[in-house]
Amino acid sequence: MKTPVYPKSGQILxxxxxxxxxxxxxxxxxxxxxxxxxxxxxLSETQFGLLVGTPILTGSLLRVALGIWTDRYGGRMVFTxxxxxxxxxxxxxxxxxxxxxxxxxxxxxxxxxxxxAVGVAYVSRWFPPERQGTxxxxxxxGNVGAAVTKFLAPFVLVxxxxxxxxxxxxxxxxxxxxxxxxxxxxxxxxxERRRSGIKPKSAWLELEPLKNVQIWxxxxxxxxxxxxxxxxxLWLPQYLINVYGLDIKTAGxxxxxxxxxxxxxxxxxxxxxxxxxxxRVLYWTFLVSVVATFxxxxxxxxxxxxxxxxxxxxxxxxxxVGFIIAIFVLGFFMALGxxxxxxxxxxxxxxxxxxxxxxxxxxxxxxxxxxxxxxxLLLDLTGLWTSxxxxxxxxxxxxxxxxxxxxxxxxxxxxxxxxxxxPPFPEMQDMPAPVAKTRTxxxxxxxxxxxxxxxxxTGRRIAQRNLWLSIPALLLSFAIWQVWSxxxxxxxxxxxxxxxxxxxxxxxxxxxxxxxxxxxxxxMVPIFGGRLWTTLTTWSLLIPAVGIGYAVQNPDTPYVVLxxxxxxxxxxxxxxxxxMANISFFFPKAEKGNALALNAGLGNLGVSVVQFVVPLAITxxxxxxxxxxxxxxxxxxxxxxxxxxNAGFVFVPFIAVSAFATWFGMNDIASAKASFTEQAVIxxxxxxxxMCWLYxxxxxxxxxxxxxxxxxxxxxxxxxxxxxxxxxxxxxxALSRSGSGWLADKYGGARVTFWAxxxxxxxxxxxxxxIGIKDQPGAFLGFFAAFLLLFFATGVxxxxxxxxxxxxxAKEMGRLMPAADAETRRKQAEKESAAITGxxxxxxxxxxxxxxxxxxxxxxxxxxxxxxxxxxxxFYVSCLAITWAVYTRKGGLLHDIERAKRGAxxxxx
Length: 909
Hints:
By secondary structure, the protein is mostly helical. About 75% of the residues lie in helices and about 5% in strands.
């Protein structure tokens, strides 16, 4: 049944578009006044990026809630209240004087940005599906408010000051709110609901569609087409001022030249989506954006070519005219893409436009918050103004690939048999089909680890072989992941002149990239198979290992190259998620805890190995002429040779041996195959998120303390040469993890986890105590012992939390799949357990960045690390309380299982 076209739909659309234009003008106000505020307060690029992005954060996060409220209470009331609240915050901005006050005021200004979710849900109810694309495209053209701010705000700012700009824009919001209220009416669904007395659905039911992976794919598209548009709208004025030397008025006018087409042509994008299909419009959007961002990303470069007739020199740099044309093209296609994304929502989710549109809008809006900060960070780190377009090139390329893969998967599902009959190349169509030879490739088609007879006679031997081949591969992965913790300290000795902040980023980036990669790696084993994926990921370690070996030999190596190598070291961190997911498939639940503890614990030894082996390897020319010449560095006994390149090269032969061993010795399990969509069900499991929290408390602490312990010790006890003992902490944590898995198998993972958090609380309390008396004799020994206790407790907790996951999912399958047989539940539990194991490890790995960063922030704000440690203590208390409340207390999920009589089957299939 078609949605009727109501008589006042045009009037409603006009009023809503005008209101959204004013809201968007207020939402991007910092793109102009922020430049003057930065000059007055002397802000860095990163601080400026945070300031202009903060309103975008508020407006984005509010979109889901505002969309739901619009579905429940009507767009007229919510839109009006939204504008009035934003007006109050914008007016109060004019009274802010310090940077913290500016940030607080910016949070309030961001309320204006939430209006988009309100307008989408409100406007879509006045038009039939075949016209919703055009209608929402016209409404979305209110993005032109960014151009309004860039046109008018510079003149008001120069004449009266930035405070007047805030006050005038606040007044405009109030006037618009009154006009909107007087010229609109409640939408037909709200009117009918009130007439019939039907109560609106609960907010939880409104959120039900958000579990669909498709929505998150739409959100990534919108992260680029809208989030990048907002980010560029905020970033372009200062880009033009600094790169092309323009004044603020001219820069604002040119930035508006980008914003106007990126807004007005959104209406045309809606028309194209209605006429030719949103998918086709998105393909063109992403393809053109890939080309445009690549061109814009190219930095000014001088080339010297040595030809047979002499040297040829030339310079490549984009002119201002070329830049304007390229940015105009990018903005035009972004506008088309924004309309195409929102064409999908009322068609696929007509009853949840508010919540779905709010989520997609929220993720897109977060792009407007995250990307300016990222632009500032990249500029600070690389010194390249074009680095912002490099980031956008990577983002849009990823969106294009995901969209194409999803569409191809859909097409293969629809015509799979017909496609399978086609030859690999068109030229082979009339040729006889080749006779295929079946090759198993080490795949196990019959795998029943819970069958006791099968396990004893066949399964254990195969599982143990895969485990002991997985362990060295994982150890090498951890070694490559943490190699920068050693290399960074030696860079100044061999001639690199980086600042302390630059060295910190080199040490921290592997933690960020490794943790991020784990999110994706955790789903790869069921898709590609454990044998193939382990082999590929082990070979991938050669890239950073060899790259570091060559890069550190030349002090003139650009900093950006070292940054890329640091990010590539995250390949080692990502391997943990896939390795644990793979091994979890091989063992029965009664032995999973010990197997995962051995794999992870001995793999974690890579942290200690790199801190122990690399300092020895760089002092000897173990590779001869092949390894390169040493650098001569000054020491207590005079100059001595240092082969810093060996920090990377020393692992190369071991990586090659391990990769060959995994390929020829490991197995795939046929029943463990699953697509990403099948595994994505874990995002609906509340225990997935609970275990993310608990494993962050255990492994996140282990890896974070490993990264921050040497620096913290050196800062607190400068007179003690404790760095030579730094490897002992990670060593204790790794050994306790590998040696305590049997405890969780015997007594229950939740019970062991509970007591591990008790020990961690005691450990942090002891560290705080000894920091308080650090000037007294024996304080260092107490401090060091307290940290060893922390490392020991994290290792025990690492093993026990992972043992909990398969037991939890086995218990939950009875509730989630009551009609399925035992074998079906077992297989589903194993697939979900593997995915949760990998995903929790991904989330927890961010501890490698956040714990050292917390130390730095605490020291910067308070002069010491105490505040950070108190924060860790409070976090561990929350972990302890959650473990008790959800799992170990009487009535908890695992209480009866873990207290079953010894010898009974404590892990029912």
